[in-house]
Amino acid sequence: QVQLVESGGGLVQAGGSLRLSCAASGRTFTTGRMGWFRQAPGKEREFVASISSSGGSTYYADSVTGRFKISTDNDKNTVYLQMNRLKPEDTAVYYCAAARSDLGRFSYWGQGTQVTVSS
């Protein structure tokens, strides 16, 4: 099993920045790609960004491209999401996720961290 714990959420004004962290523990050697998802009130969970196990490949949702950056520190088993130029529509609970391989589906999930962007 792999445990994921997010941190770094909070309240920020529009245009501001936040950095989310996701610390992985347990059988971390079994994980592949990792990602971030978010769910706003009344909406379905949506993909935000992902990164391969090597860190060499990253993918972003169109809505965050150019503003968010995903990175990983494999020595610390931690994945980050740097969020810049935040907008009120970025308000959501952000979830960290891990897959068993770089091509596998996301099967491990964190508990989520709230991000609120005020206008």
Describe the protein's topology:
Layout (H helix, E strand, L loop, with lengths): L1 E6 L2 E4 L4 E9 L7 E6 L6 E6 L6 E3 L7 E6 L4 E6 L8 E8 L6 E4 L3 E6 L1
Parallel strand pairs: 2-11
Antiparallel strand pairs: 1-3, 3-8, 4-5, 4-9, 5-6, 7-8, 9-10, 9-11
Question: Which descriptors apply to this entry?
Answer:
4-stranded antiparallel sheet, 119 residues, mainly beta, 11 strands, 7-stranded mixed sheet
Word description of this protein:
The protein has no helices and eleven strands. By secondary structure, the protein is mainly beta. The strands form two sheets. Strands 2, 4, 5, 6, 9, 10 and 11 form a seven-stranded mixed β-sheet that branches. A four-stranded antiparallel β-sheet has the order 1-3-8-7, with no helix packed on it. The N and C termini lie far apart (40 Å). 33% of the residues are buried.
